């Protein structure tokens, strides 16, 4: 569990930590407005042989065609071999208007990453047929024990979580590095404070039910005060597990009470800590979307896109501050419409001349 918290705090520096899980969604919008979708994942041979699809994918796989990929696909070129995709789920959707992935609540907040609201519209415009795609990924609704606004300003949250080019606006590399390092320190402290609050609440509960609240009055202060007073007493500045917080409280109150409390209730404390800390699990999931549109894309709210395709990444961090809204517009040329138009324009002239000739 301790490693889980450290990963959450450090993921902005180590984006592809070995315990993270990656998926890739390739979607192709057809000219009739339907969509063919493939979702790639990595799985060990035992899960594939036993067809444990719902343990491989985070969504309900009923109605999907699933099997091993013909060729191994890498999530990104700088990712280790462990993140090669070797299994794919595919299906065609005739109508795209709503949530296409049925995702459960196995991990709090995971639906925000994997179950966007998607729409595809097709509009005939005579010379062209226009296609509109939109996807809305809702902002994370995880209730963390400490308000992030205590540590990061709205501007700092924007720079840290959102995709933006403002990050180097008017600054050189050294200045940008120093600015991001300062935000990193604040971010790490916020994560540590969240874990401290989780552990402190477990300790308060144990103190109240086991010994009638011997330190109830001492622990009644705000989490902010106790965190700031004890954070420098821990040997490991990134460890705010129940055990570590008990050791820090012993030093702060000059007692051995909390270490004894933990040792006598270790199993309960560890189970409670793992359960409460599951709110951080969503930070280990990442999904890349690749969308191919009919014809040529002529408008997209993403800064980088190709002639007919666009890519974007979604994870918990990108959704911490705002919704992610994707809009893409493309069009195909109706060559037959040009031919019909020319015929319509020329035919009266030809008939008129022919009529005069006959006279």
Describe the structure.
The protein has 359 residues and is of the alpha+beta class. It has eleven helices and eleven strands. It has helices at 2-10, 45-49, 53-56, 110-114, 154-161, 173-210, 223-230, 242-253, 257-264, 266-276, 335-358; strands at 21-29, 35-41, 65-74, 84-93, 97-99, 117-125, 128-137, 285-292, 296-300, 309-315, 324-333. The strands form two sheets. A six-stranded mixed β-sheet has the order 3-4-2-1-8-10. It has a five-stranded antiparallel β-sheet with strand order 5-6-7-11-9. Helix 1 runs antiparallel to helix 6, helix 6 crosses helix 10 (266-276) and helix 8 packs antiparallel against helix 9. The longest helix has 38 residues, at 173-210. The radius of gyration is 28 Å and the shape is elongated. It starts with a helix and ends with a helix.
Question: Outline of this structure?
Answer:
This protein has 359 residues and is of the alpha+beta class.
Number of helices: 11
What gap, in angstroms, lies between the N and C termini? Answer: 97 Å
Q: Helix/strand/pairing class, anyone?
A: alpha+beta
Average pLDDT reading: 86
Strand content: 15-25%
Low-confidence stretches: 1-18
- SSE string, helices as H and strands as E: HEEHHEEEHEEHHHHHHEEEEH
| Shape estimate | elongated
The count of β-strands is: 11
Strand order of the largest sheet: 3-4-2-1-8-10
- The radius of gyration is 28 Å
| Major β-sheet profile | 6 strands, mixed
Percent range of helical residues: 25-40%
């Amino acid at each position: 569990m301790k490693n889980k918290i450290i990963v959450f705090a450090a993921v902005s520096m180590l984006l592809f930590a070995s315990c993270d899980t990656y998926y890739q969604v390739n979607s192709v919008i057809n000219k009739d407005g339907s969509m063919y979708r493939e979702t790639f994942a990595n799985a060990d041979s035992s899960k594939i042989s036993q067809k444990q699809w719902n343990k491989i994918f985070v969504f309900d796989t009923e109605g999907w065609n699933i099997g091993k990929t013909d060729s191994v696909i890498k999530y990104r070129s700088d990712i280790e071999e462990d993140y090669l995709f070797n299994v794919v789920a595919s299906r065609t959707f005739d109508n795209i208007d709503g949530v296409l992935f049925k995702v459960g609540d196995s991990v709090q907040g995971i639906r925000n990453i994997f179950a966007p609201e998607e729409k595809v519209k097709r509009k005939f415009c005579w010379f062209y047929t226009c296609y509109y795609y939109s996807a809305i990924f809702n902002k994370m609704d995880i209730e963390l024990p400490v308000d992030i606004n205590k540590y990061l300003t709205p501007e700092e949250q924007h720079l840290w979580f959102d995709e933006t080019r403002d990050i180097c606006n008017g600054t050189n590399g050294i200045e940008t590095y120093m600015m991001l390092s300062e935000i990193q320190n604040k971010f790490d402290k916020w994560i540590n404070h969240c874990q401290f609050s989780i552990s402190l609440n477990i300790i308060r509960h144990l103190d109240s039910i086991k010994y009638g609240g011997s330190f109830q009055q001492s622990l009644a202060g705000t989490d902010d005060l106790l965190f700031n007073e004890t954070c420098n007493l821990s040997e490991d500045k990134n460890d705010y597990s129940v055990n570590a917080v008990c050791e820090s409280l012993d030093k702060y109150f000059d007692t051995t009470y909390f270490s004894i409390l933990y040792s006598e209730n270790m199993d309960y404390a560890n189970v409670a800590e793992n359960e409460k800390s599951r709110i951080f699990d969503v930070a280990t999931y990442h999904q890349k979307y690749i969308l191919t549109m009919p014809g040529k894309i002529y408008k997209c709210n993403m800064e980088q896109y190709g002639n007919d395709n666009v890519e974007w990444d979604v994870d918990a961090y990108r959704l911490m501050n705002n919704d992610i809204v994707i809009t893409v517009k493309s069009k195909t040329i109706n060559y037959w419409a040009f031919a019909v138009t020319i015929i319509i324009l020329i035919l009266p002239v030809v008939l008129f001349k022919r009529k005069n000739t006959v006279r």
